[in-house]
Amino acid sequence: LMATSLQSSLSPPTLPLINHLSPRSSSANSMLKRLVVSSSVRHFLYLHNKSARKRSYIHIPSLSWPFSVISRRPIHSLKVLAMAEQSQKPTSQTHKHTNRLAAEHSPYLLQHAHNPVNWYPWGEEAFQEARKRDVPIFLSIGYSTCHWCHVMEVESFEDEGVAKLLNDWFVSIKVDREERPDVDKVYMTYVQALYGGGGWPLSVFLSPDLKPLMGGTYFPPDDNYGRPGFKTVLRKVKEAWDSKRDVLVKSGAFAIEQLSEALSASASSNKLPDGLSQTALRLCAEQLAGSYDSVYGGFGSAPKFPRPVEIQLMLYQSKRLEEIGNSGEAKEGLKMVLFSLQCMARGGIHDHVGGGFHRYSVDECWHVPHFEKMLYDQGQLANVYLDAFSITKDTTYSCISRDIFDYLRRDMIGPNGEIFSAEDADSAESESATRKKEGAFYIWTSAEVEDIVGEHATLFMDHYYIKPSGNCDLSRMSDPHNEFKGKNVLIERNSTSAMASKLGIPIEKYLDILGSCRQKLFDVRSKRPRPHLDDKVIVSWNGLVISSFARASKILKGESEGTKFNFPVVGCNPKEYMEVAEKAASFIRRQLYNQQTHRLQHSFRNGPSKAPGFLDDYAFLISGLLDLYEFGGAIFWLVWAIELQDIQDELFLDREGGGYFNTPGEDPSVLLRVKEDHDGAEPSGNSVSVINLVRLASMVSGNRSDLYRQNAEHLLAVFENRLKDMAMAVPLMCCAADMLSIPSRKQVVLVGNKPSVEFEDMLAAAHASYDPNRTVIHIDPTDAEETEFWEGNNRNIALMAKNNFSADKVVALVCQNFTCSSPVTDPKSLEALLSKKASSSV
């Protein structure tokens, strides 16, 4: 149904080179059926034409053999890995080659600054050079922690012969997809439309006016396995450009026209049909339940991605079912989620020694991961584990959230509070090693573990399934080419209580032993060469993490007094997490926000990037700021969120057609402006925006509140067909649509002096239970700034604060359907009030 566009660590992307045919040909018309897929927009394009799924061949002009359109034949990964492990040249002040990328800030671009390829960054200088020389552009897109990007660099871009072909026949441009997601979106969408999938590195050939001519992903350097090598591809593209240029250019322009039309759909009405939001929510939950893995947890099969939006939907649907009295079905969905979260936490995708989660597992049992760590995963996973704790009060889940937070605080936060983007999968096995290997930093031999752990080695090795022969044997997909032979990826296969009971050890002591052993491994691991850190600061990803840190500051106050934590969890006071969130938000405000124009820049590294803020930057940051405020932050954060929402509407909102475009549309070099809806590894900006608008509408009143709801309704109408036909592709949007359909959102209003311990305790009580359809408003009537804000934006709140203020108490009111509960003044009473059914609480 959906093609994943991230590579397995064990096999490269295998999309072939392909080009457009003349728009007048029948083949072109068939291709366009795949381009114009529906009126809704998505990150992964669904192929409606069943015949397009069959193995087929077409010819590129001047090429003498067919290219498989839907080839999935892998290249032998041992051979490719060996290529990737070629000797690395020692760092030196002098380099044989230096290109224009040396002046850039992006870590990915800097990795290529000393290739013999004459790389240009994306920009007018490169475009002008292509026009002047009248040659096509070779565009290579990747990111700094991308394993197969490293492979293609070693094999091709460091090769003098390949570089000569590129330099003689093309203008070569490098793009960091994390720095320029708008550019990546254009050409990834093109490749996905043709093949039904994509990946990085993305390799696309363009005309000098930036229209796509041909595209693919990873190419090996030489012909092999019936597919062309990169050098052959370059020669054949050169021949096609010389002999069939008109056909290529016309078809490239035609493709962009068709994609633009398909990916910027407008709504046919101003709101969804009645009942569709509930239908989509139910349908999505049913589809996910149908793909549930009852043996290993998760939804779908290998490779397994921890797609947090799926967890969010199942938790949300379970809550809604509980509210209408369908507790049996609610518990069944919740059981799936909790088991999945447990399996992920026990698996090798979780870094048991250092905390945090890797990108995905290559097998079905969450064991052998692709070892890179991405910030957007950490923020979203921390939030769903917090939700699980809110529902169950089981500290198993709160400890995993803390595990992620403490990993981020230790390894991913800069000196000024900024939060970095990613850590690579590859690293050297030792300081003297001349090559890097996937997972080298994280894996262990049994002899290493025995030597480091000492007296508790047997216990520890049994617990984490560590064996002399290596443990990557749980699935045929875990290590098909024996690349991790003799190595171990830590995984918990049995329950901790069962293991402790078997040894006759109290569970607390057993956990202490495991923690001390992990600490010893961590200390030794810290001396290993670390994976590359991408210290770029991306606004959208920071927004996701700001949200989770802010929420943790109150939700984790629900942990039982005396809860004990073991390494790598530090066990700090939860209020420290609010400080982390505020520092990260302050960094963005200081470095990536223009006080005059009120606009954001997308990213920061040694200064702001050239790229403007995109929809995701605004939407995710607004979401994080709303959580900062609702979980106890200053009114300042709410004011800024409202201001950013105004700018988001100004820059991205399609006022006539509905929905938000992904870019401001001000850069003529970005040929597509799309309305994103797919909730994948990251949620879509449109899905998050609906939730933001619902939350804001419940805080302010009058015309502004009405406008927020109208924009949300119009947005959802754009994606009506998507919600009807492919709900599983948009799980967060399904939640958002249901949130909007609720006639009256529950409001918790806290009134009192702050800061104070009493106020913090009442805030924790307000957030103690899981309820995505609740807004928390807190106001100190003695604070002039707060009073002024509410007087201007919601006089009902200001009046409520005035009438219920008590100098020595914090007063809480729960309001819904224009009715408020009697005031309560202690946390337990507030928790009890919020735990009641809505009908009896007002």
List keywords for this structure.
842 residues, alpha+beta, Glutaredoxin, Glycosyltransferase, 3 domains, six-stranded mixed sheet, four-stranded mixed sheet, 30 helices, 45% helix, disordered C terminus
Q: Enter the CATH topology name of the largest domain.
A: Glycosyltransferase
Radius of gyration: 27 Å
Q: How far do the termini sit from each other? A: 45 Å
Per CATH, the architecture of the largest domain is Alpha/alpha barrel
Structure write-up:
This protein folds into three domains: 100-264, Glutaredoxin (3-Layer(aba) Sandwich), CATH 3.40.30; 276-425 and 531-739, Glycosyltransferase (Alpha/alpha barrel); 743-835, 3-Layer(aba) Sandwich (Glutaredoxin). The chain has 30 helices and 21 strands. The strands form seven sheets. It has a six-stranded mixed beta sheet, with helices on both faces. Strands 19-18-20-21 form a four-stranded mixed beta sheet, sandwiched between helices. It has a three-stranded antiparallel beta sheet with strand order 11-12-15. Helix 13 packs antiparallel against helix 14 (395-411). The longest helix has 20 residues, at 327-346. The protein is globular and about 80 Å long. Residues 1-92 and 838-842 have low confidence and may be disordered.
